[in-house]
UniProtKB/TrEMBL annotation:
<feature type="binding site">
    <location>
        <position position="69"/>
    </location>
    <ligand>
        <name>4-amino-2-methyl-5-(diphosphooxymethyl)pyrimidine</name>
    </ligand>
</feature>
<keyword id="KW-0479">Metal-binding</keyword>
<dbReference type="GO" id="GO:0009229">
    <property type="term" value="P:thiamine diphosphate biosynthetic process"/>
</dbReference>
<feature type="binding site">
    <location>
        <position position="137"/>
    </location>
    <ligand>
        <name>4-amino-2-methyl-5-(diphosphooxymethyl)pyrimidine</name>
    </ligand>
</feature>
<feature type="binding site">
    <location>
        <begin position="37"/>
        <end position="41"/>
    </location>
    <ligand>
        <name>4-amino-2-methyl-5-(diphosphooxymethyl)pyrimidine</name>
    </ligand>
</feature>
<dbReference type="GO" id="GO:0005737">
    <property type="term" value="C:cytoplasm"/>
</dbReference>
<keyword id="KW-0808">Transferase</keyword>
<feature type="binding site">
    <location>
        <begin position="184"/>
        <end position="185"/>
    </location>
    <ligand>
        <name>2-[(2R,5Z)-2-carboxy-4-methylthiazol-5(2H)-ylidene]ethyl phosphate</name>
    </ligand>
</feature>
<feature type="binding site">
    <location>
        <begin position="134"/>
        <end position="136"/>
    </location>
    <ligand>
        <name>2-[(2R,5Z)-2-carboxy-4-methylthiazol-5(2H)-ylidene]ethyl phosphate</name>
    </ligand>
</feature>
<dbReference type="InterPro" id="IPR034291">
    <property type="entry name" value="TMP_synthase"/>
</dbReference>
<dbReference type="GO" id="GO:0000287">
    <property type="term" value="F:magnesium ion binding"/>
</dbReference>
<keyword id="KW-0460">Magnesium</keyword>
<protein>
    <recommendedName>
        <fullName>Thiamine-phosphate synthase</fullName>
        <ecNumber>2.5.1.3</ecNumber>
    </recommendedName>
</protein>
<feature type="binding site">
    <location>
        <position position="70"/>
    </location>
    <ligand>
        <name>Mg(2+)</name>
    </ligand>
</feature>
<dbReference type="InterPro" id="IPR036206">
    <property type="entry name" value="ThiamineP_synth_sf"/>
</dbReference>
<feature type="binding site">
    <location>
        <position position="108"/>
    </location>
    <ligand>
        <name>4-amino-2-methyl-5-(diphosphooxymethyl)pyrimidine</name>
    </ligand>
</feature>
<comment type="pathway">
    <text>Cofactor biosynthesis; thiamine diphosphate biosynthesis; thiamine phosphate from 4-amino-2-methyl-5-diphosphomethylpyrimidine and 4-methyl-5-(2-phosphoethyl)-thiazole: step 1/1.</text>
</comment>
Amino acid sequence: MEFNSELYFITDSTPYELDEFLWRVEDALKGGVTLMQLREKNRTTKEYIELSQAVHEICRKYNVPLIIDDRVDVMLAVDCEGVHLGAEDMPLEMARRLIGPDKILGATAKKVDVAKAAYEAGADYLGVGAIYPTTTKVKTIITSTETLDAICQAVPIPVNAIGGLNASNMDVLKGIDIAGVCAVSAIMKAESPRNAAESMKKKFREIKG
Ligand code: TZP
Ligand code: MG
């Protein structure tokens, strides 16, 4: 499936009531988010499915693919556009077999060898980070911009930078062949998710020249 990962918004519903969460999701889409991920770590399967359905409905209005974090079963149940898997999730080859050739398979990679293996196992894109310290993901390590650059050169699939990124600190990514940037906090927690998304996209396009 075709997708554009220029501005990849990853959600975190934890601090919000459902209405506010969905409002924030839609506001970010109005600001130009090109790819969306629902990332829930403390939900029952039923809750994850219900939230996925609600977010998927909004994403469809804006023609933006929805990726589900961690859970192949939830993605298949909701029939959204893809799933994102890390080292502790289902192996990528198995996931590809279950989801078929047309769904988007995303993977996390912090090292060149992991990136190459993920590509060979069928990943459609990679998320690489954390570029900066982040409070969103516990126990995450920092990936240097040198490693990010090496990964971009090692695989032919889109690579997105992630971790502590916002519109004011993206200059370090200049000259690196990334396809896009990911953000949780910078958009999710912004007073205006729409403005935050707009300015991140504008800044990303500036650094890409
Ligand atoms: N993977 C590496 S860093 C990160 C994930 C999921 C969290 C990014 O969140 P934020 O709030 O944009 O720093
Ligand atoms: Mg995971």
